[in-house]
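Reproducibility note. Readers wishing to regenerate the assembly model reported in the main text can use the exact inputs given here. Chain order matters: entities are listed in the order in which they were concatenated for prediction.
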Amino acid sequence: MILVRAPLRISFVGGGTDLPDFYHRYPGRVISATIDKFIYVLINHIPHTKKVIVKYTSTEAVDSPFQLSHTRVKATLCDLGIMRDIEIGSFADISAKAGLGSSSSFSVALLKGLNAFLGKNLNKQEVAEAACRLEIDVLKEPIGKQDQYAAAFGGFNIFQFNPDDSVEVKPVLLSHDKIEALHNNLLLFFTGITRPASSILNEQRNNIPDKFNILKEMADSVFEFEKYLLGGDFESAGKLLDNGWQKKKSLASKISNNVFNSLYETGLKAGAWGGKILGAGGGGCMLFMTPLDKKENIKKAIINLARKENMSGFEELPFKFTECGVDIVYRDDR
Amino acid sequence: MFIATTVDMEKYITNFFNEINSHLKLVSPVEIAKGLKILGATYERDGRIYVIGNGGSLAIARHFVGDLNKTVFSRHLDKKIKRFQAIALPTTDSELTAWANDIGYDMVFAGPLKNYIQETDTLVAISASGNSPNIIKAVKVAKEFGIPVIALTGFDGGKLLPLADAKIFVSTEKGKYEIVESIHEIICHLITKYFQELISNRI
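Running the prediction on these inputs yields the following structure tokens for the assembly.
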């Protein structure tokens, strides 16, 4: 049995510049950090059953991976030539489609685990590349590359997506006291609304030629955000977050909506420096950068409004940052 | 006469301090920071940290293990918190002599490392020359297994430096053990202090 976990992530600035239609023309950049919420993939060898069993929100037991409905597991098993006698289960600390990159964290954990099952040890770069290949090249999902890299590497990083399709990783070496301070200045909410990223990302991709200059500014502002983090200037970082969010909203029509806009404005009116919706938009999580002394008031104001709007799943999502990327946390098949 | 001797000794002592200082300044903070991140991640996933070295470096390795396991948590020994799992290899003299006598001295670390190693772990290799065959053998075991390696080296970094994920390197002429080992000890204390504060912050 092999148990692998990969973390979810919060992306701060630069989301959307990791789409090929953009980074083929200008280097895309994203700054993100992983949090202590994980996707777990468990891989079990079940000899003599001649079955492929996959357990997620539903359970599939089939004779061949070609019969699976779970597209990622199906494509991966077929690609790696694993045809039977295997059981795969997945577990998550947070429900899927929360805007925290969970679907790519799943792919990263799955590929790390299945390769280990075959006796092959993929390093962080290799597993990130393999997950990108699976999701973008094989399954033709309209997504970018930032989540696969964030989940594989772990910690605070800047990822640069080069026009030649290579990806550079620059760790942001924040000391523990800065990380703690940043954490204290952040508020994370789960909106209770989940959505697939695809439709928004498709529209966003089609808009890239028109919005090229905005995306370019977003990619360039990543280093500015890093500078504020390293200097502990969370007010400037928060304002840059707000600036990035205003730009991002303009990239596709469904990234935000009236309810999200009024939640966001309520946060700012109560004193937040900035914030954003995490992920492609349309639902998922909301992040705010707040002054310490106003944090409780901001939290109250936002939750009150969400209650008024009957958003029953809306709640604060407590988290910590983690240095861990994808890890095999247990195996007994040596 | 009396005064002249004192001045002469003072100069000798100051020269040594200056030499340490000039080499200390050249150690890359980025590589130490990478080492801290690797150790932090290992702690978070409850992995083990193996520390190896020969001679003076063995003394540093054992001291570092003690600091990670005990000193980091000194202010909170009565609290129920996850601790570091640092291990000096080999863990017994009988294993050391068994591997050295039966197989060869180059296996004294690689051999015992294979007993413990898991995907969640990290290896810290301390070698002034970076060329000790027993250190390189253990590092290769770690790399083949896919766990991170933090190197503390000196001189020209030797074979160890290019193999490491965090390359903590005290660049000196060959044979300057006193400079390299002194600075390695300082860096181990820096790491200890960093985690002492990290743990206190979290409680």
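We highlight two features of this model. Chain B has one domain: 28-202. The radius of gyration of chain B is 18 Å.
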